[in-house]
Amino acid sequence: MALYLEHFGLREPPFRITPHTDFFFDGAERGPTLEALLYAIQHEEGIVKVVGEVGSGKTLLCRVLIERLPKNAETIYLAKPSFTRVEIPYAVADELKIEFPRGRATIALRALQDRLIASYAGGRRTVILIDEAHAMPEETLEQVRLLSNIETSRHKLLQIVLFGQPELEEVLALPSLRQLKDRITHSFRMRPLSQAEAANYLSFRMRAAGFRGPDVFAPEAVALIARAASGLSRRINILADKALLSAFSQGTHAVTRKHARAAIADSEFAPPWRARRPFAAYAAIGAAGLALGTGAAWLLLSWQDAPPAAASTAAAPPATPQQAPPPPAVPAALAAAPPPEPPLPLLQREKLARLAGYNAARYPLLSARLAAMRERIETEPDERYSIELYITDNSDPARVERFLMRARDLVPIDEVFVLPVADGNRYRIWALYGVFPDRGAAQQASGRLPPKYQQAFQTQPRSFAELRRAL
Q: Hey, what domains does the chain have and what are their CATH numbers?
């Protein structure tokens, strides 16, 4: 069990990475996607495709779909992508417990068709859910298409749902799989969570685990976690679990920026936070948990501002056995760690005031992207770059919100930033995309923007030094 359950009043760990249907989050279009899948399956809509990045929640969606299907639906879940073309019909027949002589695929297909006809006549529907479809050989996917041909003159006898990573779309674009692609009647995409959606997701998971009280994760912590996780729910779970453990070790019931930074620093998919000044450096200060529950063992960060000589003269003498404290429930190095200091701001006070003067008028997407931009422009080094999408004198918040609503369907919304630049008594709006290590990386990323953006905008790299000067 997680070490912090009793501390936060939880009955179970809220951020396990195993798919648990009680923790299905219906935000970020997950709920509507589930309803659309149920509709497509029950109305014999042929082959359906669901695409999402690793850790976006496809497997959990699949499990919930199985639970929500009507009782007359027979579900077959195939999670092995290495099936050969010959093995697929046998695998389906085995799941349906069909007995027939082995050896010839045509016999298996005939036995399968007879069973499906009998099931349909009895009011039952048969659904095949294929996970990791992007990793299937081409000839196996072609066999899946042939399975979809099993039908009567008026009805499909087999509904097929393909779950896969974005590579599935590349596979389906191959000329050899053109017929399969043409049979796909509905396509759904599991997009990453925005910062606002990540906040709702964290709150939902906590409450589903039994938490009662105000939200634990501070907005600044949510912003850091969502960005470091690239909006992917599995990564959010990992970071949130570690951030909760950090807060527990310091005896607090709120997850703040420093707890999120500590969690991110230990994660392989997110680089550790860098010091923003030459004299500051990060150092690991201790292990973060016992081999219990989640088995969390990770490092917190601390700022080392003292020069080496001062550190050596201030070293304390080794403790005697009588001075050693009893072993605590959480390692002392973790519990006693001084909180890491936030990076020093790179903006003058008057520029910060002008930046804060733009009123988002309670538009949620705009508010989130303004907050993300402010954090970036206060901390990113001068040599980092972003991509300017457009600059407009029309600063109407409703107009910017509409742009952001369209943008989240085309690009990861966490990579879109809004910078209001004061121009006398008015503001100009700069819409920006991404953060890149140098100008060349930003230019390359411009070429990967959606064609719609490349046609509509004259994009150009902007260094953070330029952005700060514009304020």
A: 29-190 (3.40.50.300), 191-275+282-303+330-342 (1.10.8.60), 349-470 (3.30.70)
